[in-house]
Design brief:
Elements: H1 3-17, H2 23-30, H3 48-56, E1 63-67, H4 73-80, E2 84-89, H5 92-101, E3 108-111, E4 122-128, H6 136-147, E5 150-159, H7 176-179, H8 181-184, E6 188-195, E7 203-209
Parallel strand pairs: 1-2, 1-4, 2-3, 4-5
Antiparallel strand pairs: 5-7, 6-7
Helix pairs in contact: 1-2
The chain binds S-adenosylmethionine (SAM).
S-adenosylmethionine binds near residues 41, 47 and 114.
């Protein structure tokens, strides 16, 4: 376990126990002193699973939103591929960091909480590893919020688990039952890829249509 991961788990646990399950993101970024090695998910490169997906699929339409954009690499990749991208994160320090990293960016970076968005719908919605960072009770409310944004395609990249696997601390992998919140919210599942190789983290890449 790395120091960054230990610090993240401590912060998340403390905030969740204090009934502030989203407060730890700003606390983590604000105390990172712009050192990406302190943010466990910050790879300073687009998610390779997203890159592979984009190389194999086409996106219909131009308007895209990235939910929980972190340090912005996935949003930048979508903009590079010609999409008009809005990227939101609940952490103002994360958004300030994105703007500093990409001063000439075409991405519309905004500090915003998924639970209080006033945007309309988008042709392409990307959610990578944000739902899994929320405790289960909260994530059940997050799925319909994301579904509301989808006019065209939604791509979800997440850790997955079987229901009998217990949850300990962040990240909290999803079950298929939890993911069904998207179809219950009116989306249609069009593709489900289960990356479940031995000795690696189990990940799901799921595409929906609005
Ligand atoms: C585990 S990180 C993943 C970041 C990025 N998607 C990636 O793959 O590198 C989850 C991100 O979601 C953001 N986040 C969490 N809850 C959010 C919410 N309610 N609204 C907007 N962003 C949120 C966090 O600040 C954090 O940057």
């Amino acid at each position: 376990m790395t120091d960054a991961y230990t610090r993240t788990v401590q912060l998340a646990t403390e905030f969740i126990e204090n009934d502030d399950p989203l407060g730890w993101f700003e606390a983590l970024y604000a105390t990172a002193n712009e050192d990406p090695t302190t943010v466990p998910w910050a790879k300073l490169a687009p998610n390779p699973l997203l890159l592979a997906w984009l190389d194999q699929h086409s996106i219909d339409g131009k308007r895209a939103i990235v939910i929980g954009c972190g340090l912005g690499d996935d949003a930048e990749e979508l903009a590079k591929r010609g999409l008009q991208v809005t990227a939101i994160d609940i952490s103002e320090s994360a958004i300030a960091w994105c703007k500093k990293r990409f001063p000439d960016s075409l991405v519309n970076y905004q500090t915003a909480d998924l639970f209080n968005l006033t945007f309309g719908k988008f042709d392409f919605v990307l959610e990578a590893y944000t739902i899994q960072a929320m405790p289960p009770a909260l994530r059940a409310q997050a799925l319909p919020k994301i579904a509301q944004l989808v006019a065209g395609q939604l791509l979800v990249i997440t850790r997955g688990r079987e229901p009998e696997q217990s949850l300990t601390t962040v990240p909290f992998p999803l079950t298929k039952m939890e993911l069904s919140g998207f179809t219950q919210a009116g989306l249609q599942e069009v593709e489900f890829e289960d990356l479940n190789e031995p000795e690696t983290v189990r990940r799901w890449i799921v595409q929906y249509r609005g």
